[in-house]
Structure formats: structure tokens, C-alpha cells
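Entry 14. Structure prediction run on the chain below.
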Amino acid sequence: MTETTMKRDAISRWMMCLLASVMVIAVGGCEYAPARAEQDTLDRDLYPKIALHESLRGDIVVADVVENAGPPYRVTVALRSKTSTADRLVQYRFIYLDSSGVPIGETPGWLSERMPARTETFIKSNALDYGATDWRMEIRPSRDG
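Output returned:
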């Protein structure tokens, strides 16, 4: 290999490194517009008042709901466990909404309930704010064990 060829190879390697660095900077420096959120097509009036976690479907059913607009707004939900042998430990929370459909106060924490097999369980709640006009209940498997 001649000295000229070695210099040309060194310059070529240096140019390739420089080009690769520029490409990394160019690609990494691009900004992308955030994706637009998809609009919910489910009408607010059709949204279920009781949202049951997918893993509980078939094991727990809603037997009855009693609402008293108060004030304060009060709700009693009768749930029935369809399991034949084991108790189900679930967590739930009620969210109360004002006349605009906005949650009132802070999002409540989760409460636990043991549901005996093949037995109806009554869960009661009342709004802490007299401005409540609607409610939602969420039920999920217990994370306490």
C-alpha cells in the first residue's frame, strides 16, 4: 500500500464518520407532532355507570341499583358473586359528578370488599358534596392479596 492510498483511506474513514455523525444529529434532532387524541364515539349517556374489570366478568353481576338523589346523593349497589366455591376479594370506588359531568373533589381511593361465593353483597355510598347529580362505580380485582 502506498502512502497516498493510506492517506486516501484515512480521509475516507474520517469522512464516513463525519457523515454518520451528521446523520445521527439530523435524525435525532427531528421533532414530531404529537398524535391527536381520538374522539370517543360512545355517547356520555350510554356510558355504563358501573365499570367492571374484564377479569371479573362472568364472576360478578349487578343484581340491583338503588339511587336517591338526596341531597346528598346516595347509591346502593347489589352485587352477586357467581363463583361456586371461593370468595372474591374486590376493590371499588364511587365517583360523583356535578351537572356538567365533571368529577366532584379528588378521585377517591379504592375500598375493599370480600364477596362470599354465590352471595349478594350490598355496597353503599353517598356523595360528600350536595352538588352531585350523577355517579360512576369502578370495580377491579383486589390488589391486596
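The CA atoms of residues 74 and 126 lie 4 Å apart.
Filed with the rest of this week's runs.
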